[in-house]
Amino acid sequence: MRAADTILPLEARGIGFAVGGLRILSDVTLTIATGAPTIILGPNGAGKSVLLRLLHGLLVPTEGEVAWAGRSGAAARRQAMVFQRPVLLRRSARANVLYPLRLAGLPAAEREARAVHALDLVGLSALAERPARRLSGGEQQRLALARAAALQPEVLFLDEPCASLDPAATRAVEEIVGALAARGTKIVMTTHDLGQARRLAGDVVFLHAGRIREHTPAGVFFAEPATADAATFLRGELLPQ
Ligand SMILES: Nc1ncnc2c1ncn2[C@@H]1O[C@H](COP(=O)(O)OP(=O)(O)OP(=O)(O)O)[C@@H](O)[C@H]1O
Fold this sequence. Notes:
The protein is 35% helix and 25% strand.
């Protein structure tokens, strides 16, 4: 991809989010560049999902702004998101992958080719005609990844994609995430799972109580956390609110 074509860097410029008088995120300034996955890490309730939704454009910040490639506003159609619990259509696995490709206006031959490739990428080719909602939880999450990957987004947001999966299904999802990252998709993913962050992260955004505490290369974060809160989290201990 030529540099001029990219929607990155993605910037959060002093964003905050409050709802009904409750402050959920404050003063988040962050730049996300091309490269290995950016992992947004933090305990339950830290504000990770809300931050991801703000970055993707599903939520609008109540302060500050999100900018793509230096311009404020949403980067239409060049980003996709996979949620903790995927919502699948009551159709075959293949039809679930094809549907957004049709909405995107792609020609039929291109849709078919992309669906075949995406189902192969996630190891679901043999289950392509199976009703999507009868797939196991892990298979459904892999299908959600195939559906997103088929859109060939430049940036893929993943919100705790392994939250309800067992270790084998988690590992399968991580392998897919690794394969997508290796082919140039920028992954921005939330997790509270330290092991997963260690396996996948290029850089870590550590969030606690609605604020960014650290944003550093993963190696630095895990070896020498700069804040006491991050060190506490890395020891697996409870953080003060
Ligand atoms: N629309 C909303 N209205 C009110 N409170 C909300 C809303 N969305 C999120 N919250 C609250 O904001 C806080 C952060 O939520 P968020 O889902 O971003 O946390 P998280 O870090 O992703 O946690 P988890 O790891 O448990 O998914 C939580 O206390 C949550 O209850």
